[in-house]
Amino acid sequence: MTITSLNTVTGLLIAVDGTTSRQPLHRVEGTVLAGLQGLVGAEDVESVPLRDCPNKPGRTVDAWTAAGSDLQPNWVATALAALVSDDHRRVLHGPVVLLTTDQRTGRCHSLPSELVGGIGTAASRLAQASTIAGKVEHALRA
Predict the structure, then answer these.
(1) How far is CA 38 from the centre of its chain?
(2) Which residue would you say has higher pLDDT here, 75 or 132?
(3) What is the pTM of this model?
(4) DSSP 3-state assignment of 45?
(5) What's the total number of domains in the chain?
(6) Does 38 fall in a domain?
(7) What pLDDT, on the 0 to 100 scale, is given for residue 132?
(8) Would residue 141 count as lying in a domain?
(9) Is the pLDDT of residue 131 over 70?
(10) What DSSP character marks residue 72?
């Protein structure tokens, strides 16, 4: 393993249109914050813990999203987050990046490949169904 791979984590980006892509994030002084800010498109980002990471004791799967609601709602990421976390109130905005976090150290790690495929498939299917997003948004605001 090279130094670069030790200092790079791969997040799963869920775009507002529901498309997914693997995105490398470089650690600078132990953090991936600057890369996350660039991918999410906001200076103020927050981590939303979704669930424990399967087969990785002490790690959680986290969604990194724009803090506040200045960006467009990401209905696909919101639906996925609600499914795995049972939090049906939070709306995620803008592009969302999924990573895992070690709860002891606070250090981010790549999303395990076994989750990337399943989440990518689910996001794709939700994006196909997103034609109802306008109706959902209207219902949530009512």
Answers:
(1) 14
(2) 75
(3) 0.80
(4) strand
(5) 1
(6) yes
(7) 65
(8) no
(9) no
(10) P
Domain span at 119: 3-134
DSSP 8-state class, residue 135 = H
Q: Who contacts 9 (Cβ-Cβ below 8 Å, separation ≥6)?
A: 24, 25, 27, 32, 99, 108, 109, 110
- 53-85 pLDDT, tens per residue? 888 889 999 999 998 878 899 989 999 998 888
Residue 37 belongs to a domain: yes
Q: How many residues does the chain have?
A: 142
Residue 35 lies in a domain: yes
Q: Which residues pair with 14 in a beta bridge?
A: 20, 96
Residue 22's pLDDT band, with cuts at 50, 70 and 90, is very high
**Single-letter residue type at 47:** S
Q: Give tens-digit pLDDT for 79-121.
A: 999 888 877 788 999 999 999 888 888 888 888 888 888 888 8
Q: CA-to-CA distance for 35 and 55, rounded, in angstroms?
A: 26
Can you list the alpha helix ranges (DSSP code H) found in 19-131?
33-40, 75-85, 113-128
36, 14, 79, 113 alpha-carbon torsion, rounded to 10°: -90
| Whole-Å CA distances, 130 to 10, 77, 135 | 26, 11, 10
Other Cβ atoms within 10 Å of 77 Cβ, number: 29
